[in-house]
């Protein structure tokens, strides 16, 4: 626009008449043109250093524009006082009083008001004024002294840029450094940056910086438009390249990506056409349409141009104001939401493109010309008919028409009408326009797709309308369709992170814009986008792939209407570097010679080309000849070969090739001339294959192979020499003693220094030839090269693990012991490698597994590590391994029992924790008990309780009961011994519960109890029949026996009364009576000299209260020898009477009263009493459950132990306290849960049964931990924890942090055995009956008969 204006009116705007005429023109059009405008633009300058420069420009506009100055796109800071800015009524200037070389830049003046903005640019180049030397001075620009031949500038890239990835809105920088020769300040090569073959320059979105030996490209605000293939080109040499992808997260999940490549076409007075490229929708839903937004320059008010989404990637925006500048952007929409907006377009002004074609110059004579518009020259009249009407652009829904205006010489403004009609009809319709069409170019919108139209134009002014122009030929709108799917997709390997994709073009391109490539991991259906900007060619490099992963690819074509169908998927391809031939072997060495043959060795190629080098070929020739001869036809697999059939005394040269799957590589360099003379020196030959591992900051481990030629005597050792790279000063690492093995750790190196090494073998005759000098090794540790040694918590295996910080596809982990590769796996050694981690696993570890183990990773930068297992550490790991392989299930309680109804016996224990897969077996006297009916077995995972209910507990059940538990790998066992009195008590209780069940549940049985009635003359035995009356029969009889001899009572027996009596005048025998109906019952009555006193003091026969731990709480019980109907039992807690409830269960048997506290708490502590009240006296039995141990016989800790002990290592620690209990308790010490056994370091003692101590001699850090002392006897006990902390000599004493650890009460392991009274001890044994007779006498546990049901007794309530 500016160029046309300048070219047409230059030379005439200088005159006042012309300027006045143009002012009038713009005054009439003031309502339309108010944006800023440069009358004079900036001009570029080249100045010398330290001289001033001033930039001028003239701006007009209404309202008055505001002008800002920029330097290389950055606003100039006027507060620095370096610049002088002036504004004189629209004439603006920027002055730099004293220029420096860093002032060389591009300066921009930006003028803006509410109607838009314009800019003008100029370059300022500041040249150095100081000559480079006396003989070298810069001439004019472009002149170079003849001393410098710069036809070729050598450029070597030192650092290049690779693939880069970013997200929208980020900043990314690509940089490169280079060596330039010759490097002259004023002759620096120009760095040129390209994106997809389009050269880039400094702008708002691109920043380029170049200096001596470096260049940098910065993209400050990434957008999808920035995606592409970047190339750096210097003046003489092309640079490296990189393609990278930009993809940002959508504003909401599932929304499409932003459109890109916004362009403006066909700008006119009131409309423009906006086009763009669609985003990739591989991972999102299909696009419904697009919204186009506009914004006037100088404002931030974005206005949506279309009310409903448009489906094609082109849209005509109408309704613009002439002379205003606009920005445009586009947003995509799908069913999930709206995308981010695209990058805004360049500003575009809405102007009439034919305005300057209507300018007309009038000659006034002399040098004066008047420039005016053609319609202002002559008087008023109708305009002529337009001609040459045609379509300059055709699309799906619009046509851009152009025509030639007829000559017109009137003063009235002219506008145009456009009419259209469908082809084949005469129905002309006038096209509705929002503003008058004044230019001979107009876009007709809203046409039907694929239809043919005719168009014509009419010119009009205030005086009327011209004739219609000739109609156009039928113009058909495009019927656009999406492209067809691309053809076959072929993927080929390129690098270890990229793949080259090629495909066939679609058969129906349909205005193809480009392609989108999708990528998917094999076996997955998650397709991702490989590019987010349409790619124009049918070849693409997919970057950023995972090495070793397998991928599939597909391609979609795209045009402005949308995406095509997907192509067929490519064949899966694994990402690997493309195979190349290996590089050349090098350093051919002579290891031995016998006059007829030579033994050669060489170093493997540095680069394998992606495939292992497996074959080698040797060529030979005599020194001075030119013909090479092959030494071997079959390939050599090792780098050691004996070349035979040589001529003695001749001189030979050799050359070696390496081969792989990719082919034969380049040959090595010529070897040194080798003389074929027999080696006779007594010293050994040179070692070979010198390699390195465990490279650290100050050390390195060297390995080598023994010489082929040993000399006159066996080799006794090796010396390792090293020198700094480039130095001839060698130092021996082990000068005092030669090492006898083929490895050595060289220490004392400097960090970051580069060293070379060599090895010399030694025998009794001295040191032999040194090996070939190694390649340089830099003493710098590689991060992440530590090996760990642990015990597997699940299997108990000892595992050496190493994770490599570097790994390649061809890398291999080589494990060694004492630097010899491990090849014997017969002892349970397993090597397991997954990804970058390798493990050496000892399945069956033993004491022989001590030593130094190392691992090296091939095809890396020397990644390796080692770990030495010492005997002491191995012993601890073996102990831990044994514990893991043979785990024990921890038990809260040992096996115990409880009597249930019907006399069934419940055996139970509680484990710390069990799983649902737990299994168990119960044994009685080594015989497994069946869990089937009538027995029952079960467990509860939540509580850890395992139980077994034995239905028949009889006299044959006496013995040991055992449970064996297995839960996964863990096992546990617990036993309960029921013999002697313990068994008798349990059996008596079981029989009583069984008889009670029969009496209560079954009924219709006769229950007979014998009661002794005492007087001074005789004892009266009274039998009470407690039964249903209808159970007595006429044939029922009663018989009395004394020692199995029947006694006939005096007087008749009346059974209907329910009572029969037998007076005994002399109390010195045992009597038994039996009642026969359908059943018989016998009662044994024992008498002695003390019987009378016992019968008179029945309450005094009660034993002291005892404690028994149950699965649900604590049970208090009292054994009683005798019981009468007059006796009453009361339980009290701290003088408060207790009654039967859910919390307190009161019950018992004829020989034992019980009271059980369910789930006891702190409130249940205190003094408990049992009151036995008979006819004459009240007897009290008490027990203290307050926890102070005063009245408890269990083992207790009285004090003396601290909570925390802190002591310095190598000191002696003594832990001493006072314990008590009756009987004397047993003291056990534990460390971290494991029992402490006495040895040379640990001394355990218990003096006088009161003073317990643990002494640790020479404590070390390993002795730190939690120690536990348990004090326990058959009544239970306590456990106390002590934390021991050890610190080193010289360290600060760590602060003691005692934690309140209460004592833990330990319940008794089995029911408490109460002492037997003297009366019971004097009673006759149950087996005193005659031999061979079945004794009806009950077990000894039943000491007295049960009273009638009307008599109160400690018998428990009826169980349901």
Automatic annotation (TrEMBL):
Residue span(s) of domain Ig-like: 36-125, 770-870, 1209-1285
SMART domains: FN3 (SM00060), IG (SM00409), IGc2 (SM00408)
Keywords in alphabetical order: Immunoglobulin domain, Muscle protein, Repeat
InterPro entries cross-referenced by the UniProt entry: FN3_dom, FN3_sf, Ig-like_dom, Ig-like_dom_sf, Ig-like_fold, Ig_I-set, Ig_sub, Ig_sub2
Bias (Low complexity) ranges: 1316-1347
Claim: Repeat is one of the keywords in the record: yes
Top-level division of the source organism's lineage: Eukaryota
Biological-process GO terms, alphabetical: cardiac muscle cell development; heart morphogenesis; sarcomere organization
UniProt cross-references to CDD domains, sorted A to Z: FN3
Molecular functions (GO terms): structural molecule activity
GO cellular component: M band
Domain annotation Fibronectin type-III: ranges: 258-353, 385-480, 485-578, 584-683, 686-782
Residue span of region Disordered: 1316-1360
PANTHER family the record matches: MYOMESIN-2, TITIN
Protein name: Myomesin 2a
Originating species: Esox lucius
Lineage: Eukaryota, Metazoa, Chordata, Craniata, Vertebrata
Designated gene of the protein: MYOM2
């Amino acid at each position: 626009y500016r160029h046309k204006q300048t070219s047409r009116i230059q030379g005439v705007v200088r005159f006042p008449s012309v300027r006045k005429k143009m002012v009038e023109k713009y005054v009439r059009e003031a309502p339309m043109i108010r944006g800023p405008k440069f009358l004079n633009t900036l001009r570029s300058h080249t100045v010398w250093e330290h001289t001033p420069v001033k930039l001028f420009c003239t701006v007009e506009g209404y309202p008055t524009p505001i002008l800002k100055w920029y330097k290389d796109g950055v606003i100039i800071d006027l507060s620095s006082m370096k610049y002088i800015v002036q504004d004189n009524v629209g004439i603006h200037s920027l002055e730099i009083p004293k220029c420096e070389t860093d002032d060389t830049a591009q300066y921009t003046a930006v003028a803006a008001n509410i109607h838009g903005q314009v800019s003008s640019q100029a370059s300022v180049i500041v040249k150095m004024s100081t000559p480079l030397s006396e003989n070298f001075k810069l001439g004019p620009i472009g002149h170079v002294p003849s001393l410098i031949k710069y036809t070729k500038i050598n450029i070597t890239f030192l650092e290049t840029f690779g693939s880069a990835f970013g997200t929208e809105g980020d900043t990314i920088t690509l940089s490169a450094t280079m060596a330039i020769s010759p490097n002259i300040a004023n002759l620096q090569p120009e760095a040129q940056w390209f994106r997809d073959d389009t050269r880039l320059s400094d702008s708002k979105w691109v920043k380029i910086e170049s200096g001596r030996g470096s260049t940098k490209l910065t993209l400050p605000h990434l957008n999808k438009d920035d995606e592409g293939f970047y190339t750096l080109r210097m003046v003489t040499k092309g640079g490296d390249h990189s393609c990278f992808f930009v993809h940002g997260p959508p504003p909401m999940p599932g929304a499409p990506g932003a459109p890109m490549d916004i362009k403006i076409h066909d700008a006119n007075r009131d409309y423009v056409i906006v086009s763009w490229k669609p985003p990739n929708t591989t991972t999102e839903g299909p696009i419904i349409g697009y919204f186009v937004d506009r914004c006037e320059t100088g404002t931030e008010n974005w206005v949506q141009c279309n009310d409903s989404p448009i489906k094609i990637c082109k849209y005509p925006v109408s309704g613009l104001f002439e002379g205003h500048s606009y920005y445009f952007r586009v947003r995509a929409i799908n069913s999930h939401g709206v995308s981010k907006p695209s990058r805004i377009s360049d500003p575009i002004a809405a102007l009439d493109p034919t305005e300057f074609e209507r300018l007309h110059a009038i000659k006034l004579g002399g040098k004066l010309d008047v420039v005016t518009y053609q319609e202002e020259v002559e008087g008023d009249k109708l305009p002529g008919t337009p001609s040459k009407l045609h379509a300059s652009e055709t699309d799906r829904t619009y046509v851009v028409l152009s025509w030639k205006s007829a000559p017109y010489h009137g003063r009235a403004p002219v506008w145009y009408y456009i009419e259209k009609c469908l082809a084949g009809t005469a129905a002309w319709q006038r096209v509705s326009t929002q503003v008058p069409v004044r230019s001979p170019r107009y876009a007709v919108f809203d046409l039907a797709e694929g239809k043919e139209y005719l168009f014509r134009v009419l010119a009009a002014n205030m005086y009327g309308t011209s004739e219609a122009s000739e109609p156009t030929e039928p113009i058909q709108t495009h019927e656009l369709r999406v492209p067809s799917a691309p053809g076959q997709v072929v993927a080929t390997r390129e690098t270890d992170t990229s793949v080259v994709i090629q495909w066939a073009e679609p058969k129906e391109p349909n205005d193809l814009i480009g392609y989108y490539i999708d990528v998917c991991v094999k076996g997955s259906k998650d397709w991702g986008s490989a590019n987010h900007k349409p790619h124009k060619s049918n070849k693409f490099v997919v970057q950023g792939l995972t090495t070793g992963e397998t991928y599939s690819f597909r391609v979609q074509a795209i045009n402005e209407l949308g995406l095509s169908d997907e192509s067929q998927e490519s064949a899966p391809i694994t990402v690997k570097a493309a195979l190349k031939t290996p590089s050349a072997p090098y350093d051919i060495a002579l290891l031995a010679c016998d006059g007829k043959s030579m033994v050669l060795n060489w170093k493997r190629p540095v680069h394998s080309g992606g495939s292992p080098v497996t074959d080698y070929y040797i060529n030979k020739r005599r020194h001075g000849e030119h013909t090479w001869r092959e030494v071997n036809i079959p390939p050599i697999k090792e780098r050691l070969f004996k070349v035979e059939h040589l001529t003695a005394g001749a001189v030979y040269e050799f050359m070696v090739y390496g081969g792989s799957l990719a082919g034969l590589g380049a040959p090595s360099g010529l070897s040194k001339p080798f003389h074929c003379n027999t080696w006779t020196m007594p010293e050994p030959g040179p070692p070979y294959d010198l390699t390195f591992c465990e490279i650290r900051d100050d050390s390195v481990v060297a390995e080598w192979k023994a010489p082929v030629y040993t000399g006159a005597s066996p080799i006794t050792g090796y010396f390792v020499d090293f020198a700094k790279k480039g130095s001839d000063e060698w130092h021996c690492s082990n000068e005092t003693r030669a090492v006898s093995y083929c490895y050595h750790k060289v220490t004392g190196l400097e960090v970051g220094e580069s060293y070379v090494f060599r090895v010399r073998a030694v025998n009794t005759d001295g040191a032999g030839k040194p090996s070939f000098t190694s390649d340089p090794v830099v003493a710098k540790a590689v991060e992440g090269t530590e090996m760990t040694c642990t015990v597997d918590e699940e299997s108990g295996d000892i595992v050496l693990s190493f994770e490599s910080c570097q790994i390649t596809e061809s890398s291999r982990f080589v494990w060694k012991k004492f630097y010899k590769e491990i090849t014997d796996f017969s002892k349970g050694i397993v090597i397991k490698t997954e990804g970058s981690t390798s493990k050496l696993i000892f399945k069956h570890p033993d004491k022989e597994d001590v030593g130094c183990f190392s691992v090296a990773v091939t095809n890396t930068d020397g990644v390796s590590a080692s770990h030495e297992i010492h005997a002491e550490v191995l012993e601890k790991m073996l102990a831990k391994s044994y514990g893991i392989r043979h785990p024990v299930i921890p038990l809260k309680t040992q096996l115990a029992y409880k009597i249930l109804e019907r006399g069934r016996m419940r055996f139970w224990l509680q484990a710390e924790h069990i799983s649902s897969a737990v299994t168990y077996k119960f044994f009685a006297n080594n015989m497994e008990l069946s869990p089937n009916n009538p027995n029952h077995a079960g467990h509860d995972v939540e509580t850890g309780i395992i139980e077994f209910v034995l239905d028949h507990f009889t006299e044959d059940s006496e013995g040991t009961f055992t449970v064996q538990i297995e839960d996964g790998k863990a096992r546990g066992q617990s036993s309960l011994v029921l013999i002697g009195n313990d068994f008798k008590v349990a059996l008596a209780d079981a029989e009583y519960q069984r008889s009670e069940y029969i009496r209560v549940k079954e009924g219709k049985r006769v229950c007979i109890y014998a009661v002794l009635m005492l007087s001074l003359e005789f004892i009266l035995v009274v039998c009470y029949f407690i039964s249903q009356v209808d159970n007595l029969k006429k044939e029922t009889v009663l018989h009395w026996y004394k020692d199995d001899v029947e006694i006939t009572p005096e007087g008749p027996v009346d059974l209907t009364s329910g009572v029969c009596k037998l007076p005994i005048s002399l109390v010195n025998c045992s009597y038994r009576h039996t009642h026969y109906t359908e059943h018989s019952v016998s009662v044994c009555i024992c008498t002695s000299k003390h019987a009378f006193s016992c019968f008179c003091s029945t309450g005094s026969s009660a034993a002291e209260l005892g404690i028994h731990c149950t699965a649900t709480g604590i049970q208090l019980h009292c054994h009683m020898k005798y019981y009468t109907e007059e006796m009453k039992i009361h339980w009290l807690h701290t003088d408060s009477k207790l009654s039967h409830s859910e919390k307190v269960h009161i019950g018992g048997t004829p020989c034992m009263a019980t009271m059980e506290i369910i789930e006891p708490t702190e409130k249940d502590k205190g003094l408990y009493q049992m009151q036995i009240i008979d006819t004459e006296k009240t007897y009290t039995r008490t027990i203290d459950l307050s926890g102070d141990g005063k009245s408890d016989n269990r083992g207790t800790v009285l004090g003396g132990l601290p909570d925390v002990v802190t002591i310095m290592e190598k000191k002696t620690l003594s832990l001493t306290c006072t314990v008590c209990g009756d009987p004397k308790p047993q003291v056990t010490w534990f460390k971290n849960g494991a029992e402490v056994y006495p040895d040379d370091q640990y001394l355990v003692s218990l003096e006088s049964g009161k003073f317990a101590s643990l002494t640790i001699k020479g404590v070390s850090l390993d002795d730190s931990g939690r120690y536990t002392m348990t004090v326990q006897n058959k009544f239970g006990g306590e456990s106390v924890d002590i934390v021991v902390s050890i610190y080193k000599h010289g360290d600060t004493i760590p602060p003691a942090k005692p934690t309140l650890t209460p004592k833990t009460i330990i319940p008794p392991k089995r029911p408490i055995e109460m002492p037997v009274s003297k009366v019971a001890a004097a009673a006759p044994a149950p087996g005193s009956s005659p031999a061979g007779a079945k004794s009806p006498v009950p077990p000894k546990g039943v000491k007295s008969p049960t009273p009638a049901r009307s008599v109160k007794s400690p018998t428990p309530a009826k169980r349901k």
